[in-house]
Fold each of these.
Amino acid sequence: MSGHAHSHKRSGLWDWLTTVDHKKIGILYLIAGGFFFLIGGLEALLIRLQLIVPEADFVGAATFNELITMHGTTMIFLAVMPVIFALMNAIVPLQIGARDVAFPFVNALGFWLFFFGGVLLNTSWFLGGAPDAGWTSYTTLALKQYSGIGVDFYVLGLQIAGLGTLIGGINFLVTVINMRAPGMTFMRLPMFTWSAFVTSGLILFAFPAITVGLVLLMFERLFGANFFNPDAGGNVVIWEHIFWIFGHPEVYILILPAFGVISEVVSTFSKKRLFGYSSMVFATVMIGFLGFMVWAHHMFTTGLGPIANTLFGIATMLIAVPTGIKIFNWLFTMWGGQIRFTTANLFAVGFIPTFTIGGMTGVMLALPAADYQYHDSYFVVAHFHYVIVGGLVFGLFSGLYYWWPKMFGKMLNEKLGKWNFWTFFIGFHLTFFPQHFLGLMGMPRRVFTYLKNQDLDLGNFISSIGAIGMTIGTILFLANVVVAARSKKQAPADPWDARTLEWAIPSPAPEYNFAQTPLVRGLDALWVEKMAGNKGMTPAEPLGSIHMPSPSFLPFLMSIGLFIAGYGFIFEHHVFSVIGILIAFACMLMRSLKDDHGYHIEPDEIEEKGVKA
Amino acid sequence: MSAHVSNESTHRTPKVKKSGAKAHLVTFIVSIVLTALAFIAVGYEVIPIGFTVPFIILLAIVQAAFQLFVWMHLDQKGHEFPRIGILMGVVVVAATVFTFVYWLW
Amino acid sequence: MKSRWQQLWRQLFLFGMLALFLAGCGRENLSALTPQGPVAEMQFSLMKLSALIMIGVFVVVILIFTYVLIRYRKRPGQDGIPKQVEGNHKLEILWTVIPFLLLIVMAVPTVTIAFDLSKEYTNKDALVVKVTAHQFWWEFEYPDLGISTAQDLYIPTGKKIQFDLTSADVMHAFWIPALGGKMDTNPGDSNKMWLQAEKPGIYYGKCAELCGASHALMDFKVNALEPAKFDEWATAMKSAESTPATASAQQGQQIFQKSCLGCHAIGAEGGKLAPNLTNFADRQRVAGILENNPENLDKWLADPQAVKPGNLMPNLNLKPEDRKALVDYMSTLKVYQP
Amino acid sequence: MSADHTVNSVLPDEPEKATLEGKNKVLGFWLFLGGETILFGTLFATFIALRNQTNGGPTGHELFELPLTAAATVILLVSSMTSVMSVLAMHQHNLKKMQVWLTITAILGIAFLALEIYEFSHYVAEGHKMSSSAFGSAFYTLVGFHGGHVLFGVLWLITLQLQAIKKGLTVVTAPKFYVFSLYWHFVDLVWVFIFTVVYLMSIVGGKVG
Ligand code: HEA
Ligand code: HEA
Ligand code: CUA
Ligand SMILES: [Cu+2]
């Protein structure tokens, strides 16, 4: 090979646009996801502001529908999924002792597709109106006859972002299957990696469904097809099925990584191994599998009939069993431990009762006859924010506090962190607890206002006030990030006295992750070595030259191509559609024809950095 | 790079079987025969009309299995994950099709 | 450490109070927590059963949780390594089997109630009402009685009402929380559902499926009457005839016939694109949301879009005096006063 | 290490699985096919649901003809066989033979496409269009998606042929040829269900009434 270009000392914007390093891609996901979280949060604040008193006139009816649609869509697809991907990228390869993911190039492509899909969707605000048919975009409301250009942005933005997610999922599956260090058997995988693995599987099987759904909707809106329009023989329920065949697994795609984080954090800060590891693995796989068999519980009132309703209802209830296994295993992990209440652990501990409440209202929703009352009411809104915000977002905060040193080499401030937790926690319950009762008292969801004298005022008022708590919490987190970035103190390799492989290497992780691939000798690989009195991992290979993939601008360019094509379709200027798609294909061709030989990092360079084996 | 290979997947695949070509040809013939059967069943009404649809679907499934396992080597060792992947795909598709046939409304 | 637990307890207490406070109320004729008929009753029983089980499980979780957090928090100066427990098969089986049994307890009534609710009543015991949802109003037809109305649904008490639900445009959902759960109205198909009211009264109905800008304002009212009174109403509806007495009202009638009858019907005469106004003056509300009085009607006629954004009634740019005449005329559209 | 990529003098028996990159590629592609199963499955389900909604237009029974479908089927089936042969040739490290089989595969693919274009234009002339009915939409989307896959496969094959000429058979190119053959089989496999569910079932369905 033409030697080793010393190109790994890159920095600046170009580096970020071309990087294929999973750690940097993780950071990109975090920044982009965090940004969209703020946007989605801002939309939530506007929603709550409009609902603070009855018959308020703060935003109009049409704008309100755009706000809820964009809030839901942004939060699910563009905020929390990317932050999950951020953690998966930053941590999974480290936890399995790999130098990189299986397909670094595809990894970068996945990020840029998500990013440009998200940008495309959000530009709708300025280019003719945001989508306004709800994040579920039920046909017929989402058909051209009844809604504006915004839905086209929804269709194309999600299509592009979804493609990115799909290839990301495949990448992580292959990474976990093929890239594990010697000795890292499946039953020694850390729980977070297990959950990332199952989540990736769910992505693989769920996203093609939404891809098809979006294609059908696009053909219907742009090319005059008639899948859903009943006047030409179409059927409005097909969209509902397709959306939820994807949509229900999607919620487990979201929650499983959070379960993984909680397992790691609770175990580390109890100083105990995870209670019932194998049943945890089993439960994760079970949840993933059952997740595909229950989608119609979102459609109990569609009119599928009592047989379908009860079958899907009972299948749904079954998911309580594996999830319960998890809850109790966490409790018994803490049992007999030495629990340290760091911020990461506060969020994990706060997760347990909060998620349990959300899961229980979920089981209540799963009884079809009762759901006739709950459906499309604020009770459902309360349910899913309990599992998503009280579950997933708590889990993400926990994971971020836990792994921040590994990602950035700096510790987040604990004092600020505790304030962050308590304001967010209290604000959360104030916001969403009353919504259960609002729903039962007859408040439908997706209403831009409600009339006076329906006894709905107090609950809404408290709910809106609570959102301020979450805002303060979020701002404190941002402040904490700034404080950490400014601090000069470098984080140690293993600040928490933790158990898994990622803590065996310096913080932040060096470019090549492991100077020598480690030999794994048990569950909680690092803990095993600690208990054996070793300073670090035993290497499985001699120190040698490390092969690295080259950076590439093609993922960025290719995503730009589809971005342009997206606008071409939306505004029906098909010249742009064609140009954009050609750009994407040209990039694919270039990638296919030109072999990437990568470059090497030599042992002397590794040692220069003082990272002796 | 060999260091990354996990212990489960380090097996040396056997030498290409001499019978490889033969099995593939047999599959080809099977496919042609099954296809022909389906067309004949429909074109000449050789079996009672009521059974035709389940019959040709069964033929398609058998043919698909042959192609997956022989032509695409799903039967070979080292294909555990591909098998799981395709199986899960088939399960989800079955649930979807079943629902679309019986519970669309 | 102490203060944190105090904070947690204070919070739990606060939520407890909040729960009690909020749970107690809810308008009787709106809330699902105050069922007014057998369907809502059955659903409420299921809700209560499942909520009870959930609270039971939650208490168990929270007890273990609190005990663990207090008992096993790391004390200052504590070191050494806790016993690394791999698991415990007995316990794990326990918390697999118990939830499973609890689910069975819930599953049994779930199945029976789901089938009870989906029974179709096409016999003479039931009154059939065909509901057609429109952006953003409701049309009610009584095929057996040969009458139709809009916005205010009249039903007899103590009798099963068999609904036949469909939509003229997008998907909506028909929901009367105090009487029972909701059902979607799908364009291109019809759904069936039955409800029953025990006591006479006015119940609030809502559209529960996002259907456009004024989804939030797509309210309707259910007027449950004693059977005898219901029959009187039905008879009155069939022979409804308005007799504008004043000159202004007669002028209003002419305007109406000229510019409104294309969409709105009165009696059998007129279009079906908009609410039937035969008994408009009996309505609780104008367009489902504004209290029905002359000022509000005038407000509606002056600018329907300002009241209900995105609705399909155009602004007809009526002169104030024409509006006055129309208001006078429309207040004569009375059919029945119980 | 991957630097040995260029060493193609001693090619292993199954060159597609000789490197970690190759293994990753094959596994990743298999998983992708798992996803494609859902993709086509959803399209099939949609088609089945809408196949009788002709909105007054021609029905499948009126449109479809056995001989045309049979011809398309035979073409695709044979091409699937030829792509198997190309992999066998690759395992024998016979570059020339592999290229020949791949060329035949490409030609058959193009023939299939030509037949499909003829078929579609024929239908459009009879008033069976994407926009004419739910049946039309579902038909063109499902069959068109499959046709799109064939088209993509042919284009892909052309780039592979270029690489075969330029780079020959190495541990880098071998996985690409292998993965292509998986793709091509899968496309054929989907067709098995298309001719069964779309064509034959419509033809039968018409008879039953
Ligand atoms: C992270 C996301 C997430 C998660 C994890 C869940 C988890 C669950 N969800 Fe939820 N759900 C959503 C996100 C999520 N949901 C969203 C976004 C919507 C609305 C979408 C929309 O319409 O916009 C929704 C809507 C929704 C509905 C449809 C409501 C309606 O629209 O009418 C239903 C109905 O069955 C449901 C059920 C469940 C169930 C049974 C679980 C279970 O997985 C919960 C299991 C957990 C537990 C049960 C707690 C722990 C268990 C124990 C302590 C053991 C003992 C317990 C018992 C014996 C009960 N959900
Ligand atoms: C991951 C998913 C997710 C998350 C995290 C959230 C978070 C929140 N949601 Fe979310 N929500 C959904 C997913 C989510 N939601 C979905 C899917 C729907 C259904 C949509 C539909 O019906 O179609 C929904 C609907 C929904 C509704 C019902 C709307 C309706 O039916 O009419 C409400 C109302 O209260 C609400 C409120 C909130 C609040 C207060 C938060 C808070 O937790 C947010 C907290 C965050 C912040 C407050 C951010 C802080 C902001 C700043 C610091 C300022 C920003 C500054 C700059 C940008 C410069 N949401
Ligand atoms: Cu009609 Cu909402
Ligand atoms: Cu769900």
Note: Helices of chain B lie at 20-43, 49-71, 80-102.
Amino acid sequence: MFSEAVKIEQRVEEGKGITTLRFPMGAKVRPGQFLMVWIPGVDEIPMSVSFIGALAGITVKEVGEATRALSLMKEGDVLGLRGPYGNGWQLPPGRVLCVGGGVGMAPIMTAAEGMADRTRVDVAIGARNAGEIIFEGRARRASDDVRTTTDDGSYGLKGTVVALADQMMREKRYDVVLGCGPEVMNRYLLKACKQHSVPCQLSLERLMKCGAGLCGSCVIDGLRVCADGPVFTGEQVERMTEFGRWKRDDAGLRVSL
Amino acid sequence: MFSEAVKIEQRVEEGKGITTLRFPMGAKVRPGQFLMVWIPGVDEIPMSVSFIGALAGITVKEVGEATRALSLMKEGDVLGLRGPYGNGWQLPPGRVLCVGGGVGMAPIMTAAEGMADRTRVDVAIGARNAGEIIFEGRARRASDDVRTTTDDGSYGLKGTVVALADQMMREKRYDVVLGCGPEVMNRYLLKACKQHSVPCQLSLERLMKCGAGLCGSCVIDGLRVCADGPVFTGEQVERMTEFGRWKRDDAGLRVSL
Amino acid sequence: MTTSLETDICGTRLRNPTMLASGVMGETGDSLLRVAEAGAGAAVTKSIGLEPRRGYPNPTLVELEDGYINAMGLPGPGIEAFGEEMSVALKGGIPIIGSLFAAIPEDFVTLAVRMQEYGASAIELNLSCPHAKGYGMEVGVDPEAVASIVRQVKAAIDIPLWAKLTPNTHRLLDVAKAVEGAGGDAIVAVNTVKAMAISVEARRPVLFNRTGGLSGPAIKAVGLRCVYELYEAVDIPIIGVGGAETSRDVLEYLMAGARAVQIGSGVGRRGLGVFQAACGGLLRYLEEHGLNSLSDIVGVAHVQ
Amino acid sequence: MTTSLETDICGTRLRNPTMLASGVMGETGDSLLRVAEAGAGAAVTKSIGLEPRRGYPNPTLVELEDGYINAMGLPGPGIEAFGEEMSVALKGGIPIIGSLFAAIPEDFVTLAVRMQEYGASAIELNLSCPHAKGYGMEVGVDPEAVASIVRQVKAAIDIPLWAKLTPNTHRLLDVAKAVEGAGGDAIVAVNTVKAMAISVEARRPVLFNRTGGLSGPAIKAVGLRCVYELYEAVDIPIIGVGGAETSRDVLEYLMAGARAVQIGSGVGRRGLGVFQAACGGLLRYLEEHGLNSLSDIVGVAHVQ
Ligand SMILES: Cc1cc2nc3c(=O)[nH]c(=O)nc-3n(C[C@H](O)[C@H](O)[C@H](O)COP(=O)(O)OP(=O)(O)OC[C@H]3O[C@@H](n4cnc5c(N)ncnc54)[C@H](O)[C@@H]3O)c2cc1C
Ligand SMILES: Cc1cc2nc3c(=O)[nH]c(=O)nc-3n(C[C@H](O)[C@H](O)[C@H](O)COP(=O)(O)OP(=O)(O)OC[C@H]3O[C@@H](n4cnc5c(N)ncnc54)[C@H](O)[C@@H]3O)c2cc1C
Ligand SMILES: Cc1cc2nc3c(=O)[nH]c(=O)nc-3n(C[C@H](O)[C@H](O)[C@H](O)COP(=O)(O)O)c2cc1C
Ligand SMILES: Cc1cc2nc3c(=O)[nH]c(=O)nc-3n(C[C@H](O)[C@H](O)[C@H](O)COP(=O)(O)O)c2cc1C
Ligand code: FES
Ligand code: FES
């Protein structure tokens, strides 16, 4: 664990409303872990690490106040970071299919790049439209089989990324599927993996306050997404009665997703 | 720095009123460093480490309440330790003469044993009488030239250990002299070393409360014996106006030695 | 006779003396259940108030090397919705202690009665949160105000009543005596120490609320001191809390006079295994020293 | 204009804002001289009383990973003998601040007058030691008592009068306002946090006095909070103390509102180089940020 303030060194617009911020960071991070990112004067929110290494990075999609403020930050601006938190992916030997929906590509990309052998990792990238497809070039550098899909068909195949993943599982035998995206995508991906009897790991999201396993705001059933996750195995997710149905609001009240 | 409680594993009577206590200790110690030793319910006092290694040890001479209580401790009794504190000896390349008076042999012995080459370290052991000569056997295992002296001539040569050291400096060329004993011994040893133009290091004692460089109770001139010493170079000692003349009592008042 | 870690706090029997501290994982029934599975002897709920509260915006937590500073702002679903969580929590089979916060005695009474209905084994009054305006330590430093709350709540419930106190006052012992005098059954000490963090780069306080409460190893020596002093000041049982993580920490609290020890920050720093690890160490300690029960060490640091 | 670390506390000019805290190496003139040579901007003496005092028997110090707990018991040579030490200390060329402890205003006056004669640049009233019976924090939590001491001492001396306060009370701001109202020139915050250590093996408190005062990094967040709150409560200068060791710590205190920062435990943990290292970092910070003087950052954490 560390807590530090960093200066943004590089800002890259990855797509429509999706921005990468790069900064030097001391701490060692494993693929799939996240940081609590403090935008001084605004908010502090969880962000997956999308670039590992000396020039680390996060990739943010604008959805509300904090993500907008973060997206608008400039080179030289200061961010507070604490973490890394969470368990990260378990990368087994064998063939891996990485499935990322939208900005869910952030933690997926570090997993793909974390594989030693590019012939053993395939990537399925999905988004609502062409503007939201990110990291395709990076993915092609890490894998021989990268496919894309958009809901509206404006880029790549037309359809959902789960349909694409299903197709790929039909074609090849994978030892594990890693998935990150909107909860509904995760839910259908889990279903598809079950049909093909492929074990999967899903990175989940919930409202996070502390990020450190204390406050309990991020729990799904008894599991803290921040400390017990954010990556859960398919079996864990299947046992979650709240998955795909409920989340907790700021007051800890259960509200439907 | 560490703070731990240990159980005494071995108790050895080294001489009249001089007792060694051995215990397992986690921390790494350099020759010449000391511990603050807590005798629960009695007092906490500074004690040089007289044995370095997995079974560390201190060697205590009974002079008052705390040292008596310590001397009476049995195997299995609990001691509190904190430290190691202090700078320890600087062991230069070349020929070393170790000079210990009485229980002053405690930090001297670890220096002698710390020398890689037994032909390069000589030891002069002095005491008031035969019963107070300690560590002669240990010294002989560490050095080829070990000589002893007692004030009353009851063992070894008759005379002071400084006279003996002076004699040895006349015979051989030393690159450094290490000394520890009563302040008057240290004072004359410093003088003898000056006459022979041999650099020396002296381990000094003062009333210690904190041992950690904070309280200031152990100062000689501006120097804290606990943190700046207990080992000082001859040049440092020569510049001390209080050395050999004054010490500070519990209230910080200057009293004559 | 076999070695046992059982302990008893004015009638509430605990299988072991470790307890989840309030505010950590205690907002939902499922989490409390997991804490029971992880081996805690009891679990205290998040402090619950009358209405749902969102708490403060983030940042609500600062992580230091030796602890945390938090200013959550007492978020919670409110007493109404918490009934459902309690019914889940109770399945864990360990005593669930209902922690409550309010500004006036009447509200504490309302909350305590509901908590009792929900099946709480005891009530813990949060008279000590250092960062929520109008609550917690703002009432908890005034012996008369505390006595009045304790007296009224005590009259309204049948289960034991615990009062959790703040170390941020020179009147700790006066407040504890007020609790005892008003019929309180146990003292819980301590809540967090009022503190803050400033970011040099951002040139501002880190927490949204600016100040917060320091917890974890940084405050263990403060909590121990409070328990030690309380043990000599009151006769009702004391529950220690503040920086406890290992069996050694728990032993220190027991020797200072605590009958049980709550763990909060340790859950974040060491994970949920913290309870089982501490209990394992306690058992070994008792066995090595030929002791049958914890009562042989509670308060021994006072015997000289 | 060149970058300068100079600071001014109600007329006392300091070459830099680091200052030796009371009780650390401040009992003898020679030590204070060394602290001047080591680069401190000023040095506060050990708290001096009317008579020589031996302090408590050992153990008087516990070393923790993140600080110390001490119960020295205010040892010292007494005001009479301290004149000689002062004359040595003054050779260092930096302001020497005379720290004093007493139980009643009259004794504080006697002490302050002598300290002024000895050449102290200012007086620091120790109203905050948590472990000496009848002194320090026992008077320092009562605003009226504090006002009376400050008023009487102020009337008797010409040099500035500082009051050092305890964090072990919920009345910190009331006490500070009492100091200001009675004519005090500056507030020093904080003294140690009341704490203790228990040895599991020995089954007893470690310190002879059982309780003591926690200092070092463990209390930095507490000291920062106090300084931050004081800055909004009083207009007189504030001097921060508690866990400061690095230039970053000093910056945090300055941003919270301190004009200068005292270092105590840091001298033991990092050595006497602590002052120069902190000042080096401060200079670099000012230069990197294009600032000429510290006044540009004092209190900036309050501007949002
Ligand atoms: C472990 C983890 C990793 C994350 N990694 C990334 C990342 O790499 N890139 C990225 O862009 N985002 C990531 N997020 C999501 C991001 O934290 C939220 O989008 C952000 O907190 C929203 O803050 P806001 O103030 O902008 O939006 P708000 O104003 O808080 O909300 C705007 C909308 O987004 C919804 N929303 C808010 N938070 C979440 C959430 N956690 N999950 C789902 N919906 C939410 C709200 O319900 C609302 O509809 C991650 C979340 C978690 C838990
Ligand atoms: C760095 C250091 C290392 C030491 N190492 C050893 C060691 O290895 N073995 C050992 O036996 N002793 C050692 N001492 C000395 C030992 O700490 C004292 O003898 C002890 O503190 C005396 O405590 P007491 O209660 O028994 O005696 P007290 O009742 O305190 O005093 C008894 C008599 O001893 C004198 N005395 C007390 N303390 C000292 C002192 N520090 N120096 C000189 N005279 C003193 C008193 O003036 C009095 O005359 C060391 C001291 C220091 C500072
Ligand atoms: C994130 C967090 C939230 C807390 N919330 C509450 C609370 O709601 N009610 C309460 O009485 N104490 C609360 N506390 C205080 C703890 O119960 C405990 O008293 C304190 O943290 C010291 O124990 P620890 O060092 O083991 O964490 C909270 C502490 C933390 C860290
Ligand atoms: C060994 C020791 C002795 C102290 N003695 C005094 C004292 O005599 N008077 C006083 O006002 N403060 C005394 N203090 C408190 C310090 O001046 C300071 O307020 C406190 O230690 C916090 O600062 P730090 O964390 O930098 O040490 C003492 C502290 C220590 C560690
Ligand atoms: S965000 Fe607080 S426990 Fe997960
Ligand atoms: S014994 Fe305290 S400074 Fe040396």
Note: Residues 98 and 178 of chain B are 5 Å apart (CA to CA).
Amino acid sequence: MRVRVQLFARLRELAGRSDVECEVGDGSTIADVWREVAGRHPGLAPYEASVSCARNEDFARMSAPVADGDAIAFLPPVSGG
Amino acid sequence: MRVRVQLFARLRELAGRSDVECEVGDGSTIADVWREVAGRHPGLAPYEASVSCARNEDFARMSAPVADGDAIAFLPPVSGG
Amino acid sequence: MSLLSITSQPLHAGVLAAELEREVQGRGEGCGAVCTFLGIVRATHKGRRVRYLEYEAFEPLALKTFDRIAREIAADWPEARVAIHHRVGRLAVGEASVIIAAASSHRAESFQVCRYAIERIKQIAPIWKHEFFAEGDAWVEGATADIEDETARRRARDIAACV
Amino acid sequence: MSLLSITSQPLHAGVLAAELEREVQGRGEGCGAVCTFLGIVRATHKGRRVRYLEYEAFEPLALKTFDRIAREIAADWPEARVAIHHRVGRLAVGEASVIIAAASSHRAESFQVCRYAIERIKQIAPIWKHEFFAEGDAWVEGATADIEDETARRRARDIAACV
């Protein structure tokens, strides 16, 4: 399956890009997508424990399954306000 | 001694006037002034326990002495804000 | 513009907040938070429809009282600053009777100072609200103003520390 | 004007407060209190002089998060209404990064709702602050956004209501 990954804030800077196309196997979860992206951009690895994520512009759990064409967003700890 | 008394809000309405000239004996306190004013305007009597007062534009105790020419103000319970 | 005032003119919180922000920005850690409170003339009071209100103040003493409240705040929240403008005269439903702005480097203090100020105003400022209904009118009478009442001051501080 | 927004334009609390006041005035007891909070770009951060900030947001999700916060508030404070405008892009020292307005019939709720909103924004809104100093820059990273974390929500409510 092909999913589109969006990276924000420091994750974007560490990866050097805001959008990543990503190929994962059937039955993959968002966590699998994260491992794929962090594998390609090792600078992201320290965020493994603190990252949160969204699927198609809604918050999701890392354990949620992904479908072909999904937009997955990875969010470092937030600091709005 | 002659003192000028200012009445506010409902006290003013009950007395029908905002300013009262008042004659009290030497050694009088603000409480004596109140009794003098309330004697002339009995409608004020129910405020005996809840009134507060000022002397020459500063809060004062009812037990404070008054001097000739003082401006004494009687204030019903407040409701600003 | 004075930070403390009594006026018969409509109140504008924005100008007050901006002035206070500039003042606090220039010192210490700077200004990171401004909390404002607007007391508004409500359309109803205990189920009765309000036509309009009149506020009356013993102006010189009310200003001194605002200054006292500002000094109490300076003692308890030294990094914060407060501004208080209170309206007098006739007010329509929806108009602001009082605006308070509190600026500080961090948000908790700005909320606390703003809340403390409105609680203290209601306790000790020599200002009175006169409500006019479709039928009849009523003076509102709250607290007996007593600046020596430390229990009241502590109560205001406790309410504020909770915000 | 929308009550919830993300914008690169300067924020104006007055318009927001006025709109909210009108909305709350028309229902129930009416509107007696408006509390606003302005988060301001502070001149210093941990002793370092700030040149400017940049805020970045995941806009569609941030707007949904504001809507979630507004619904949480409607559940806990049914008489109150909240508005949230958050700025993105480059901000100078002294500018507002966020403005929150909370209107209700009585003052306690307006303070509580305003405080709850800013606490929740800091917990879960997908927005990031990037600080630029005279030398160097730093992303600020606070909470891991977790909308299912009921402990965090309760903490925001406790801070707001001082339980």
Note: The two ends of chain A are 37 Å apart (CA to CA).
